[in-house]
Design brief:
Blueprint: H1 14-26, E1 31-34, H2 51-59, E2 67-70, E3 75-78, H3 80-88, E4 93-99, H4 103-113, H5 123-136, H6 142-149, H7 153-162, E5 170-172, E6 178-180, H8 183-196, H9 202-209, H10 213-224, H11 232-242, H12 264-275, H13 278-281, H14 284-301, H15 303-309, H16 312-348
Length: 349
């Protein structure tokens, strides 16, 4: 599993992979390790070990179950209370089963194991663990995060809404399949692309909109019938979301920024208008902006030729690069919108 902040193959079916790892560890041989060699750091328990639970384990007349240890760091992944209890009994060694893997995966295992048995994590610690997983694995679905953190998927959804936006367009479910975070927005984007180019391949549209080819086909069929790209259920959900405080209109609402019209022809008209604006042409910053716009105009005009002329081995790296730049352009667009809104408020007060 990867500590990446974007969806990738290493994150697919990650929650399911953790369950498999746990089962694998449970079947591994038990080794006797020196307690002094173990590290009791990085625990998901914010308050450390519970002294009462340690005392109960230490006084019990039963053999302590094996702990789980991250071999690379000798950090205790599961069983800190048992280690303390073994020390209380005067033992120098304790039975351990080892985990081979990365430190972030070791943390995920620690959370999963400590929500499944023994003295389970507190609600506060589970919430903190879920927030950390959302930060390090934002592409995980709510159910995947919930399965590891031991809380409900609805709770994870609320935590995600309260966290800062990550810009991730897809999430990886427990079955390993990638699904759009906002299916309404994906369908709306596909509808926009198919209106621009009705002959576009469904795979290209699906990839650009972050939806499946089957969903892209459904959008195309709806457009051919003159219907809305969004089924009634998604349309109603989008309308409810639009009524929430702080909602910003987007493609699913049928609204697009004025500075980013849907068709290439409209984009070209906006670029031509800005290139004739003296307030841009007569300043150094304005001229830099115009140079960037001319490059964009070339991309708009020659998009099909670029796609068909680029060497095949360069297509994937260029696509990744363009997606990265699109995020930067989106961020700049939002900054420009905020600046425009602020200037408009200043003029009206």
């Amino acid at each position: 599993m990867s500590n990446a902040s974007r969806p990738d193959t290493d994150d697919q079916g990650a929650a399911r992979e953790i369950a498999r790892r746990i089962s694998e560890i449970r079947r591994s041989p038990v080794e006797q390790v020196l307690i002094d060699d173990l590290r009791l750091t990085g625990s998901p328990r914010s308050r450390g070990e519970d002294s009462r639970h340690v005392r109960l384990l230490g006084e019990a007349d039963t053999e302590l179950p094996p702990i789980v240890v991250h071999r690379a760091t000798m950090r205790v992944v599961d069983g800190a209370h048992r280690v303390r209890a073994a020390s209380l009994r005067g033992l120098r060694r304790i039975g351990a089963q080892f985990f081979e893997g990365g430190e972030e995966e070791a943390y995920l295992l620690s959370v999963a194991l400590n929500t499944a048995h023994g003295l389970t994590l507190s609600r506060t610690d589970r919430t903190a663990a879920a927030l950390r997983i959302l930060a390090t694995h934002p592409c995980w679905s709510d159910r995947s995060v919930a399965a590891v953190a031991g809380i409900s998927a609805s709770k994870v959804a609320r935590l995600r809404e309260g966290a800062a936006a990550t810009g991730v367009r897809t999430r990886i479910g427990r079955d390993g399949r990638s699904r759009p975070v906002d299916p309404a927005a994906g369908r709306a984007r596909a509808g926009e692309l198919l209106r621009q180019d009705p002959t576009a391949s469904l795979r290209q549209v699906a990839r650009a909109a972050g939806i499946s080819p089957a969903t892209a086909a459904d959008v195309r069929d709806r457009l051919l019938r003159g219907a809305d790209p969004l089924p009634d259920r998604l349309r109603r959900a989008a309308e409810r979301a639009a009524r929430r405080p702080g909602h910003r209109p987007g493609p699913a609402d049928g609204e697009f920024p004025r500075t980013a019209p849907a068709s290439p022809e409209a984009l070209t008209r906006v670029i031509d208008t800005l290139c004739r604006d003296p307030s841009l042409r007569l300043t150094s910053t304005g001229r830099e902006v115009l140079r960037l716009l001319r490059v964009c105009a070339t991309a708009v005009r020659d998009q099909r030729r670029i796609v068909t002329s680029v060497p095949p081995h360069c297509l994937a790296p260029l696509a990744e690069l363009m997606r990265g730049y699109s995020g930067i352009w989106q961020s700049l667009a939002e900054e420009l919108e905020r600046a425009h809104s602020a200037s408009t408020r200043d003029l009206t007060h």
